[in-house]
Design a protein that fits this description.
By secondary structure, this protein is mainly alpha-helical. About 70% of the residues lie in helices and about 0% in strands. The longest helix is centred in the first third of the chain and has 27 residues. The N and C termini lie far apart (about 60 Å).
Length: about 280
């Protein structure tokens, strides 16, 4: 497999990288090396011929056009996976310094074809200014995270935060009312709820905060406590702190200092210093 990978076989390089990632312990640096080979080899091959390079000799004269098309499509996806996996490792700190110059290209190629995870990672690149000479570009970040939000809970949460804070969403605001730069708390609430429905604890906490502050959602301390509880049960430290405060002080009508103390202690266990003050 190493010989095939070194000779330019895309699948062999990808499989070697995959083995390194799944090894015990994983070797991310070596995985990045093989993913880089797979990604570079895939980008050089004409798309209509990728399947011949990945599985040489597997085309039989009797293979139907549908079978050929299906094989080529499946293998095209594997090539894209190699590029995105490599880019993910680079974002995590593996690979060579020069690799950061090309990961935007990997993500954008795959995101443009409809991959929502790649779109979310591309958002992170623009949000953090990752890449050759890249500066932070929140409008581009908002564009890609909005696309990813159609199917990725973390992206729904991130997009809701951008809407809530008015970051990178001038275009959306202009479409709504001809102005730019204002925050969109009601739109943010809808995206927070989508992320919360997918199980995102940070989104649950954010909904609770919106009910508690009357920002984007009508002031409702009972609903706020419900969402804080949902996030706290999923391990969100600041939700545990806030739920503890609500129960100890009866902010939503339920006064239960014993239960409140339990949640404050859980927050302390996660390093929330404010919870220590509440317990003292």
């Amino acid at each position: 497999m190493r010989r095939a990978a070194l000779a330019g076989n895309v699948e062999a390089a990808y499989r070697l990288g995959d083995r390194r990632v799944k090894g015990s312990p994983p070797d991310y640096a070596d995985a990045a090396t093989w993913y880089r080979r797979a990604a570079n080899a895939a980008i050089r091959l004409p798309p209509v011929r990728w399947h011949r390079y990945i599985f040489p000799g597997t085309e039989s004269p009797g293979m139907s056009k549908r079978e050929r098309a299906g094989r080529a499509c499946r293998q095209k996806v594997e090539n894209q996976v190699a590029q995105v996996d490599f880019a993910n490792l680079v974002l995590a700190g593996a690979g060579e310094p020069d690799d950061r110059t090309s990961i935007v290209v990997w993500f954008e190629a795959t995101a443009s074809s409809g991959d929502m995870v790649a779109a979310f990672n591309l958002d992170l690149c623009f949000a953090e200014g990752v890449g050759a000479g890249m500066r932070k570009d929140e409008e581009q970040a908002a564009r890609w995270v909005r696309r990813a939000a159609e199917g990725v809970a973390d992206a729904q949460y991130a997009y809701a935060r951008m809407l809530q804070d008015g970051r990178g969403v001038a275009l959306a605001e202009m479409l709504l009312n001809g102005r730019g730069g204002a925050c969109l708390p009601q739109a943010a609430a809808q995206w927070f709820k989508r992320a919360a429905a997918a199980g995102h604890p940070g989104a649950m906490f954010a909904i609770g905060a919106q009910y508690a502050n009357g920002q984007g959602l009508s002031f409702n301390p009972v609903a706020a406590q419900k969402w804080f509880a949902a996030a706290a049960e999923r391990g969100h430290a600041h939700a545990q702190l806030t739920l503890g405060r609500y129960l100890c002080n009866g902010r939503a009508g339920e006064h239960n200092p014993l239960a409140g103390r339990v949640w404050l202690e859980r927050a302390v266990a996660q390093g929330v210093r404010e919870a220590v003050d509440e317990l003292s």
